[in-house]
UniProtKB/TrEMBL annotation:
Positions in coiled-coil regions: none
InterPro entries according to UniProt: LRR-containing_regulator, LRR_dom_sf
Keyword Magnesium: no
Descriptive protein name: 162_t:CDS:1
UniProt entry keywords in alphabetical sequence: Repeat
């Protein structure tokens, strides 16, 4: 939790911060809340790396909401964030439909599954900005 609070403070105080790498910090889903709150209003951060964290279901709520509101983030790495479940996947898909700045999204190694695959596919048909999408090490098709 302390790392996310420090990151939130840094983003809020440093108006020029463009890249934030929180790779492998292993904070829990609730610890990410302070960070997502500032992402909604941040006007400089373009790259956020949350790879190898235990975000789980919380990704679907706060982070997806931040993606809908944030107008500067271009690169988001959620690789190996562990089990983005059906609800989280649906929320991310909805965010992809609304977000107008994200160009790179890494969802590798999240065990997305077939239901999330359908939601993401529908969202990608509507998204006009995403250029790179990484989905390796997911169970996207049938068995």
């Amino acid at each position: 939790m302390q790392i996310c609070n420090e990151a939130r403070r840094e983003i809020a105080e440093n108006g020029n911060l463009m890249c934030l790498n929180l790779n492998n910090k292993l904070f829990s889903s609730k610890a990410i809340k302070p960070l997502t709150e500032v992402l909604c209003n941040n006007t400089a951060l373009t790259n956020l790396n949350l790879n190898n964290n235990m975000l789980g279901e919380y990704v679907g709520n706060s982070l997806a909401e931040a993606l809908c509101k944030n107008t500067t983030s271009k690169n988001l790495n959620l690789g190996n964030s562990y089990s983005i479940d059906e609800l989280a996947g649906k929320a991310l898909a909805e965010a992809l439909c609304k977000n107008t700045t994200l160009t790179n999204l890494d969802l590798c190694g999240n065990r997305l599954g077939e239901l999330v695959n359908k939601e993401l596919a529908e969202a990608l048909c509507k998204n006009t900005t995403l250029i790179d999408l990484y989905l390796s090490s997911n169970s996207l098709g049938g068995s």
